[in-house]
Design a protein that fits this description.
By secondary structure, this protein is mostly helical. The protein folds into two domains: about 280 residues, Serine Threonine Protein Phosphatase 5, Tetratricopeptide repeat; about 170 residues, no CATH class. It is about 40% helix and about 5% strand. It contains 24 helices and twelve strands. The longest helix has 26 residues. The relative contact order is 0.13.
C-alpha cells in the first residue's frame, strides 16, 4: 500500500508538471514582465517576440504544405533536405511524436500556443508603457491581435477544432482549469473573425515606413486572412462534414456542425469582397512584368512567363498582400534550380532536388485555356509520343530538341512554373530572348541530369516558378540569389477565393467569372466561358454550378502551384483521397535517349486515409488532459 501511494504521488506530480507544459500558461520570468513594458524600446522587443512565432512558410522543410502533400518528391535516404514533412506524404505520421507538431512546437513545428500566450501577455501590458502615444499602442495591439488570430487559424486549419486561448490563465489556476476543451469549429470561426475585425480597425492600409516595416501587418493582410479563414470553414471539410460528425469533447460538445450551412459561404463572399476592396484601394494589383535594361525588349511569350514568375519572386511587388520577411528563400531557390551551365557542373550549391511529379505537369491547361483531357484540338492520347521542337516554340522549347507531346502547346503558366527536359530557362545570366538562353538537358549525360547520389530531380521536373530569373551560378560554391519574401497571400489568391465563394452562393454568373477571368487574362488566356465554348468537349461546363466549381478548383491548383495552397485546398474540398491515393511518377532518368527517358516510372504509391485530414494531437497531451478529444483515426 505504501508503494502504491508513492506511485500515485509520482503520477500526480508528473501530471501537474505536464499540465503546465501543455499550453505553458504561466509566463516565464514573471518578475521581468513589468520591465518588459517599462518603456517603448522594451515593448517593441516583446512585439517582435510575438512576430517570432510566425511559421517559416518559405522553408520547404518547415512548411507542411510544401513537402507533406504531392507537389514534390524525392529519392530515398535524401540528405540535402530535412525529410520530416515528406514522411507525412509517405503516410508515416504518428501520435507519439507527431511530425511538424505546431501544437507543442516539436519536430520542426513552431510552438504556436506559446506564441498565443506571449500575444496575450503583450495585450495585457502594452497600455502600461509610458513613453508611447495611444495611437501607437492601438496600432501595435492591432498587430498582435492579428498574430494571435493567425496562430489560432494556423492550428485550426491543421488540427480542426482547437482550444480558444483568449486570455492567459492566472498563476493561481488549478490543474483542472488548465485542462481546456477543444471548441466547436463554428465558435472558433466566430472568435477569429471578431478578432481579425478588431485588428483591422486599427491597422494602416499602407505602411507608414515601408523601408523599415515591410512584413508587418496591415489592414489588407488582416482582411485577406479573414477571407481565407471563412472560405476554409465554409468548405466541405468543415461545413457539415458527416465523416467527422462523431468528433465530440468528453463533455458531449459536438465539434463539427452536422449539416452544411449555406450562410457560411455568404459570409465568406462578403469577406472576400471587403478584402479585395481594401487591397485594391491600397494600390495592390495583379503584377505585370516591365522589361528593363537587363532584359531588353521581350516577346509576348517571355513577358507573360516573367509576369507569372515575378508575381512570386520579385521583392515586395504590386501583387503581394503579405510577404513573409521571416522566410529567406535562398535555400528554397537552390533546391529548385536546375543545373544549366556545363562549365558550372561541379557547383554543388545548386542542389536541384525539388521534383514535381508528372501529374503536376498534366494539371496545367492547353494553350487554349482548358484541361488537356477536354481540349478537342489537343490529342491527349498521344501526349507521351515524341516530338521535335521548332522555331515556332523557341521561347518555350529548344529548337531541334526531342521531347514529349505533353510539353507542347500548353498555357503560359506551364512554361513559367515548370522546368523540364528540352524546356527554356530564361535568365541565370542569359537574357537574349529567343536566341541565347539556357535549355534544360535532363536526360542522362545532360547538364541537368543526375549528379552523384544526391543532387538531382527524381522526376525530371523543377519548380522554375520559385527561382528568380536574376540569380547567377558562378564557379565553385558561389550561387548568387536574389532573395525574396515568401508570398503568404497575393491578390490572385484572393480573386480566386472570391470566384469560388460567388459560385457557391449565386452560381455561375458575372460575379464568379470576373475575378476568375482577371487571373486567366494575366496568363494570356481568354475568359472561362469563351475558352470552354470554343475548345472544350464539354462547352456548357462553366454554366452549371458543379461544372464551374470544378473549373475554379483546377484554376486554383494551377495559379497557386508550388505556393503552399494545393495541400490545404485538396483537404478543405475533401478531394484529397481522389488525388493523393495513387502512384507518384517521374521519367526514367538513367536513360540518355528520348525513347528511353520518356518512360514513366512509379516512384511511390501514396495512400490517404480519413485520419490524414487533420494532424494528431500528441498522445502525451491526451494522457495529461482528458478533456481533449483526439482526432478521428488517431
Amino acid at each position: 500500500m505504501k508503494k502504491l501511494n508513492i506511485l500515485i504521488l509520482i503520477i500526480v506530480l508528473s501530471t501537474l508538471n505536464s499540465c503546465k507544459k501543455y499550453l505553458d500558461v504561466v509566463p516565464d520570468n514573471i518578475a521581468t514582465i513589468g520591465s518588459a513594458f517599462s518603456m517603448r524600446s522594451q515593448a517593441e522587443k516583446f512585439l517582435f517576440t510575438c512576430y517570432s512565432y510566425l511559421p517559416r512558410e518559405g522553408s520547404p522543410s518547415e512548411n507542411p504544405a510544401m513537402l507533406a502533400g504531392d507537389e514534390y518528391w524525392f529519392f530515398d535516404n535524401i540528405k540535402n533536405i530535412d525529410p520530416t514533412a515528406w514522411r507525412i506524404a509517405k503516410g508515416e505520421q504518428g501520435i507519439t511524436s507527431p511530425y511538424l507538431n505546431f501544437w507543442d512546437g516539436e519536430n520542426l513545428g513552431q510552438p504556436l500556443f506559446r506564441g498565443i500566450r506571449d500575444c496575450n501577455i503583450f495585450l495585457e501590458n502594452i497600455n502600461s508603457v509610458l513613453d508611447m502615444s495611444d495611437f501607437e499602442k492601438k496600432k501595435w495591439s492591432a498587430e498582435v491581435k492579428f498574430l494571435k488570430a493567425y496562430y489560432h487559424f494556423y492550428l485550426m486549419r491543421m488540427y480542426g477544432p482547437i482550444p480558444i486561448i483568449d486570455k492567459n490563465m492566472p498563476v493561481s489556476a488549478s490543474p483542472e482549469e488548465v485542462k481546456v476543451f477543444r471548441q466547436p469549429i463554428d465558435k472558433c470561426a466566430d472568435y477569429l473573425a471578431g478578432l481579425l475585425d478588431e485588428a483591422a480597425t486599427d491597422l494602416p492600409s499602407i505602411l507608414d515606413k515601408p523601408t523599415t516595416d515591410l512584413g508587418r501587418i496591415t489592414k489588407p493582410i488582416a482582411l485577406a486572412i479573414k477571407a481565407r479563414m471563412l472560405v476554409l470553414v465554409a468548405s466541405p471539410l468543415f461545413n457539415g462534414n458527416p465523416d467527422f460528425s462523431s468528433l465530440q469533447s468528453p463533455d458531449g460538445t459536438v465539434l463539427f456542425n452536422p449539416a452544411p450551412d449555406q450562410k457560411k459561404w455568404e459570409r465568406a463572399l462578403l469577406a472576400c469582397n471587403e478584402a479585395i476592396s481594401v487591397a485594391e484601394s491600397a494600390g495592390i494589383k495583379l503584377y505585370e512584368f516591365i522589361p528593363n535594361a537587363t532584359t531588353g525588349a521581350l516577346s509576348p511569350e517571355t513577358l507573360r512567363t516573367l509576369s507569372i514568375q515575378n508575381a512570386v519572386t520579385e521583392r515586395w511587388n504590386t501583387e503581394q498582400i503579405w510577404g513573409a520577411s521571416n522566410s529567406r528563400t535562398y535555400d528554397l531557390q537552390r533546391k529548385a534550380q536546375a543545373r544549366l551551365d556545363p562549365s558550372k557542373f561541379l557547383n554543388e550549391t545548386v542542389q536541384s532536388i525539388l521534383a514535381p511529379p508528372i501529374k503536376i505537369a498534366e494539371l496545367f491547361y492547353t494553350r487554349n485555356g482548358v484541361p488537356i483531357t477536354e481540349d478537342k484540338t489537343w490529342n491527349y492520347a498521344n501526349r507521351l509520343n515524341l516530338r521535335t521542337g521548332t522555331t515556332n516554340e523557341k521561347f518555350y522549347i529548344k529548337p531541334g530538341y526531342k521531347t514529349v507531346e505533353l510539353h507542347f502547346d500548353r498555357e503560359s503558366r506551364f512554361y513559367a512554373d515548370l522546368g523540364f527536359d528540352g524546356g527554356i530557362w530564361y535568365g541565370l545570366g542569359k537574357f537574349k530572348d529567343g536566341s541565347d538562353v539556357w535549355p534544360i538537358e535532363a536526360r542522362a549525360g545532360g547538364t541537368a541530369s543526375r549528379k552523384g547520389a544526391q543532387l538531382y530531380s527524381v522526376t525530371g521536373y523543377w519548380p522554375k516558378k520559385l527561382v528568380s530569373y536574376l540569380n547567377v551560378i558562378n564557379d565553385d560554391s558561389d550561387y548568387r540569389v536574389l532573395d525574396y519574401p515568401w508570398p503568404i497571400v497575393r491578390l490572385a489568391d484572393l480573386y480566386l477565393m472570391h470566384a469560388e465563394a460567388a459560385n457557391e452562393v449565386k452560381g455561375p454568373g458575372q460575379e464568379a467569372y470576373q475575378y476568375l477571368d482577371k487571373v486567366r487574362n494575366r496568363a494570356g488566356l481568354k475568359g472561362v466561358v469563351e475558352s470552354w465554348t470554343a475548345f472544350s468537349t464539354n462547352p456548357s461546363k462553366p454554366g452549371s454550378k458543379d461544372g464551374l466549381r470544378e473549373i475554379i478548383h483546377q484554376e486554383r491548383l494551377i495559379e497557386m502551384a508550388f505556393e503552399g495552397s494545393r495541400f490545404w485546398d485538396l483537404r478543405r474540398w475533401k478531394e484529397a483521397p481522389a488525388v493523393l491515393n495513387g502512384p507518384v511518377k517521374g521519367w526514367d532518368l538513367e536513360q540518355a535517349t528520348p525513347e528511353g527517358y520518356y518512360r514513366q516510372k512509379t516512384l511511390y504509391v501514396q495512400a490517404f486515409a480519413l485520419k490524414d485530414y487533420f494532424w494528431p494531437i500528441k498522445e502525451s497531451n491526451i494522457t495529461v488532459n482528458r478533456n481533449l478529444a483526439q482526432n478521428i483515426g488517431w
